[in-house]
Fold this sequence. Notes:
By secondary structure, the protein is an alpha+beta fold. The protein is 49% helix and 11% strand. It has 23 helices and 14 strands. The strands form five sheets. The chain has a five-stranded mixed sheet with strand order 3-4-10-7-5. The chain has a three-stranded antiparallel sheet with strand order 6-14-11. The longest helix has 31 residues, at 268-298. The protein is globular and about 60 Å long.
Amino acid sequence: MTDFYKLYIIATKHVPTYEMALHQKYGTLINQTRVVGTDVDAARINSTGSIVRVAPNLLAISNPDMIPAVYNKSADKGDFYSHGVMGESPPIFQTLKQEEHTPKRRIITRSLSTRNIPTLEDNVNERIAEMRDVITAKFASTGDRFDFSEWVRWMLFDTITQVTFSNLIGFIKHGQDVNGFISSIYGMSYFAGLIATLPWLMRPLLQHPYLKRFLLPHEGDGSGTARVMMYQDRIVENHLRYPDVSPQRDILHNLLQIHTPDGSALPIEDVKAESMVFVFTASVTLSAIVCPFVNYILSNHEVSKNLLSEIVDFDSRQQLSSPIASFCETSKMPYFMACIQETLRLSPPTPVLLTRKVGKEGLWLNDTLVPEATEIGANPYVINRNVRDFGADAHVFRPERWLEDPEASKHMAKRLLTWGYGVRDCAGKAISRLILQKLCLQIFTLTIHTYGQLFRDFDITLDGDHQKWAKHEDRGLCFYQDQWINIKARTPL
């Protein structure tokens, strides 16, 4: 019954605001016989219920103090993370059992370390420069408006495929969704939602030798997802066939060099699962952060003015490399980093319950024992708007909150749930932040490309006839479109 509730909610509701409304409506969780929780006032946050029942066996929390207990290091993930779309081998973020996840993460995360990809920042710089040149020629020089959300998706998919495979598909070069790769990936969110909410039904179907050919992408089916998988297969085959020919220190290379504790190589199916899921998740989630970042800045005159002033100041003191600032340089810009943190807080790319399964011993919350096998979790959209941690104006985009008190800023950073929590936080966070910061900074001076270079190269404004841009949440993934902007080349700072 719980799974059908989840399917109904994901299919028909705006998940983040729906869950927020539940916390606001119910002060405490009520079971069949009594109110759960004795210290109600202490547990509530801004008159919001700290625990609510979303479905018969699914609980949601809004109190950040409960997060360490719910997301303890021995907790298994909930069924929402069930795998299946990309094959039989689950990547680390879809590995449910903690005892299986821990050793797998220990060996996989080394491949995603920025230190293990020496060409990483150079790769990102190449893609930023390409987007800058194309946007300058097509739009800044002509005065034509363009859909930023579309172009930033293309740039990010090119960047992530280059970082992963030392190759890129060429979305920016061709100015289109090549072979429908990206639209197909987003289209798979509907099917992924079914697998996540009805794993007991979908998993047997996906394992059936005949049915899985009709349900899953495979070679020759014509879908963009299948084409991307075939593209990956060719690259993996070349790496294996010619290992000594111009070896690339990319994510795929690092994964192929991994040895498990028993000395054997990481199975090829695991290599494919980890690399492909990284391409999909990093590209999709980063675009769901860059797009609102741009919109927050452009729709707030004071914020835009303050950010540009900081860029001019740093550039005049030669604190920013030319033509593209380094990751370390962007990290030293207080106001810019505050804008990034505030975007991560208000616009988490996956605004859904990140669930865990309660273990055999149960889980004590608010003097109440939550029984074994209950699914429980928190939604970053809810947690990141907690007024006790982020202030009475937690619903407002105000970067200054991150600059007012160093200790308060550290506290808020620890409370953010955008990247997950604890031993199961985002394994690719370091790479994602590097791309995010560099792109957004360049956008402010060019158009809106990454968390750094775009605003450095261009003057950007929202198109007067298209101020209302569209945001969708498809099965837990944010998707932005119709983000029309006008852009012109900025006079050198």
